[in-house]
């Protein structure tokens, strides 16, 4: 007999309005457990709003979020325990070092035994141990992403929700993050991330959803979605290339 594993994330009719504007418009989405999953879409498509609702940081107007089979509205504590979250624009305690932030996180989350070894491993693999006395206020963008990822992973979540983890960082830092996420998925974890970087999504993700105006335009394996082209070409085709107008004074 095979036991069916619950999807890592399941969205049903997820909707969010800001005033008259519908940012997320009845999204249905299933992210299978153990998948490296990408959400892509143009600026303002509703990616961050969707991830914020999955992360429990924004209440949906309607619809449901299920994480590892648990209803996020009813089993909030368990769902928050299962999730590791890194969102754009969330502030970090600037006057701590990276190691101090992990120590603080462990105590705040009441993480049991084993976290000091995990903190050491994370700081090392993300090369943050090279600047042990640097305060977060002096961290580069890449270092901020890395410490954010370490914070998200410290309690050993089963699902990572990451808003643009590769944005504005150099290729070496990106590889370090990618390597860590690959290991997380190889160990049975699920990664759900948003990105504008089609080459990274193509390289790392197994499945992808393309959203625009708060709706899913297409979803499937990366090969299904790109259908023999690059993901970038598919994206531009589905989203619509900008109209080019000649500007004489630029010539
Ligand atoms: N707190 C808010 N108040 C009002 N409107 C908002 C708010 N948050 C998001 N929006 C609007 O909802 C829409 C979706 O925004 P969202 O940030 O989810 O898009 P996104 O796909 O993540 O975009 P980007 O790629 O630029 O980060 C946008 O039109 C945005 O202006």
UniProtKB/TrEMBL annotation:
Pfam families: ABC_tran (PF00005). It is found in: Cell membrane. Gene3D superfamilies: P-loop containing nucleotide triphosphate hydrolases. The keyword ATP-binding applies. Keywords: Antibiotic resistance, ATP-binding, Nucleotide-binding, Transport. One of its GO terms (cellular component) is plasma membrane. GO terms for biological process: response to antibiotic. Residues 9-238 form the ABC transporter domain. The keyword Nucleotide-binding applies. SMART domains: AAA. It is a peripheral membrane protein. One of its GO terms (molecular function) is ATP binding. This is ABC transporter ATP-binding protein.
């Amino acid at each position: 007999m095979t036991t069916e594993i619950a999807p890592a994330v399941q969205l049903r009719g997820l909707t969010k309005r800001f005033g008259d504007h519908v940012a997320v418009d009845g999204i249905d989405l299933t992210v299978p457990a153990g998948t490296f999953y990408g959400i892509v879409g143009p600026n303002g498509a509703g990616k961050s709003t969707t991830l914020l609702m999955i992360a429990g940081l924004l209440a949906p107007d309607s619809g449901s979020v299920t994480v590892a089979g648990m209803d996020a509205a009813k089993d909030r504590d368990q769902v928050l325990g299962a999730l590791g979250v890194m969102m754009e624009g969330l502030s970090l305690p600037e006057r701590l070092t990276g190691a101090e932030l992990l120590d603080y996180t462990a105590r705040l989350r009441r993480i049991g035994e084993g976290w000091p070894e995990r903190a050491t491993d994370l700081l090392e693999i993300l090369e943050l141990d090279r600047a042990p006395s640097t305060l977060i206020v002096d961290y580069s963008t890449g270092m901020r992403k890395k410490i954010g990822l370490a914070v998200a992973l410290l309690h050993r979540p089963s699902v990572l929700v990451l808003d643009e983890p590769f944005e504005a960082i150099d290729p070496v830092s990106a590889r370090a993050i990618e390597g860590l996420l690959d290991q997380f998925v190889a160990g049975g974890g699920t990664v759900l991330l948003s990105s504008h970087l089609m080459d990274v999504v193509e390289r790392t993700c197994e499945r992808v959803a393309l959203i625009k105006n708060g709706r899913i335009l297409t979803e499937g394996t990366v090969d299904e979605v790109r259908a023999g082209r690059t993901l970038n070409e598919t994206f531009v085709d589905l989203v619509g290339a900008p109209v080019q107008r000649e500007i004489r004074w630029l010539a």
